[in-house]
Amino acid sequence: MRKITSELLAASTLILTIAVAPSAAMAEWPERPVSIVVPAGAGGGTDQTARMLAQRLQDKFGQPFNIINQGQGGGVVGINSIMTADPDGYTLGVIYNFAHYKPMGQADFDAENFIAIAQFNFDPAGFHVRADSAWQTLPQALDAIKAAPADYTIACGGGCGGSWPMAAATLLKEWGVDMSKVRMISGQGAAAALQDMVAGGFDVVPSSVPEAGALIEAGRVKGLAVFGEERLAAFPDIPTLNEAADLNISLGAWRGLVGPAALPEDIAGRLEAAMKEIVESEDWRKEMTDRGFGIKWRDSGDFGAYMEEQQTEVRSIIGALGL
Q1: 195, 225, 245 - which closes a domain
Q2: Which of 64, 160, 163, 280 is buried most, with the most CB atoms less than 10 Å from its CB?
Q3: Burial letters for 210-226: b for 16+ Cβ neighbours within 10 Å, e otherwise?
Q4: More confident residue, 238 or 21
Q5: Looking at the domain assignment, is residue 76 inside a domain?
Q6: Residue 26, in any domain of the structure
């Protein structure tokens, strides 16, 4: 009897251990460094905000959160890395508008391929030209492009259906420009495109204003408009679209943290809670504001719904513009 009881006790203990093990292992996350894939080159707005976030997540969880820049293919390489990563919580990603890749035949990403953890940023687009450009105002630039679309090049930064070029394309469409004749060229992010423009490679670079901030302050780039409802506090001399061209449009880019679709809910939940604390902190808000980045909080549910909405809207615009 004692032997049977002992065997039953051992079996019960084994069953209990098996049942508890997964949640116990999950509770120990992270036990080693976590990678955050950034589908853009170093120095741009996505990279800057990702590094700010990574440092604070490291402080919260006590493990390094390392940035991995993968801007190749206009961001396709990085986004693919996020989508196909092991869903163990050790590879996450900062993502932005990616809905254009599929209709443009560049990749096969959908919102459902990721778990939305939280959105932390929204930035209005900016319209940037070289400091020595003959265009002094936005209407001058738009009129010139409308008159001879093929004579000018517009940098896409990453893919030509991304947030910044989509904002520029929408603006040009509103101005009556034939988008089928405009030369839009993809690259490895806004930072690289801005440097190429300064060297004479492009005529226009749409991007967030903070991404162009250092070159604006150095007198090498000028901003003709910001695509938001108000001027940016960090760049008060750049007019809004409404002020510059009498256009009541607000266009820009969003950024958020995601993981592969099968990321365990408890890990995603812990990350979401940590991000909420970060985004609501005075330290985060001050650094974001000082650098000229917009702050936008959407929790997991709202962010996921927003990604779906953006996917529908972006793909509709791409079809209308013939991109």
Answers
A1: 245
A2: 163
A3: bbbbebbeeebbbbbbb
A4: 238
A5: yes
A6: no
The two tokens of residue 275 are 């991000």
Average pLDDT of the segment spanning 221-231 = 93
The model's pTM is 0.72
Query: Beta strand 114-130 with 252-260: parallel, antiparallel or unpaired?
Result: antiparallel
In this structure, is residue 12 part of a structural domain?
no
pLDDT tens-digit map of 186-201: 887 888 999 999 999 9
Torsion angles phi and psi, residue 250, rounded to 5: -125, 115
**The one-letter amino acid at 159:** G
Give the pLDDT mean for 237-244. Answer: 96
Q: Residue 89's CB: how many other CB atoms inside 10 A?
A: 21
If 0-12 CB within 10 Å is exposed, 13-18 middle and 19+ buried, where does residue 16 land? exposed
pLDDT in tens, 114-162: 999 999 998 899 999 999 999 999 999 999 999 999 999 999 877 677 7
Residue 42 shares a structural domain with residue 182: no
